[in-house]
């Protein structure tokens, strides 16, 4: 099989000129029975952005990202990635997207090397290209010692890293990552962050969800806060923070801090 054509790096954007939109989400809705999980979400992500999505548990983050990447069909609304409608032309759209989904499921009876090879040829890369890119990714993610072991025997953090390597092997224009740093140790998290920052600096775009406000504030340039299936604030990190920390702004929009009352029994011990 012939190698897939690499995506050309976008031309530099002149100062003051907005980069092209790589992800456009309009009027996105999704219900599960009587539960409205996503209620008319609109998002616009531009090329070269490191875009964070935050929200409380059950806010609709994973549902939104699943629809964006073609894993879950929306009830209403439209999604375009690099000008391609995700649901009208899913094959073309998925060529330009790399995905690290929530509740990760991999072919874990393969070794790490086999899984990377499978991910590469599935994306249309020839064997030589897959082997070269796999070697680069393995070194970058620190997986040299695990390459010939079954993925089923990997730790949770190593599983995340091999899955992220699989998402990047075809050099997508857009990476959509759902909690990419969950279960990843601090040293590996720093390495992964540096890899993603270099990817963004070269013209790639990252959209990630995380519960770590500190992480989002440190690495992202744009952020959206989603609560109850709606975007309550979106823009640059500084615009959304509004002079507060991102955590303070998030807590404010999510309904404020809850005061624990009526649990005096917890202050007297059973022994």
CATH superfamily caption of the largest domain: P-loop containing nucleotide triphosphate hydrolases
Terminal Cα span: 70 Å
Oligomeric form: single chain
Overall CATH architecture of the largest domain: 3-Layer(aba) Sandwich
Number of E-type strands: 10
* Count of alpha and pi helical runs: 9
Membrane topology: Peripheral membrane protein
Organism: Cryobacterium zhongshanensis
Domain ABC transporter: 23-253
Pfam families: ABC_tran
Describe this structure as you would to a colleague.
By secondary structure, the protein is an alpha/beta fold. The protein folds into two domains: 34-78 and 175-271, Rossmann fold, CATH 3.40.50; 97-171, no CATH class. 33% of the residues lie in helices and 24% in strands. The protein has nine helices and ten strands. Strand 9 (222-227) and strand 10 (230-236) form a beta hairpin. Helix 3 packs across helix 4 and helix 3 packs parallel to helix 5 (156-168). It is globular and about 65 Å long. Residues 1-7 have low confidence and may be disordered.
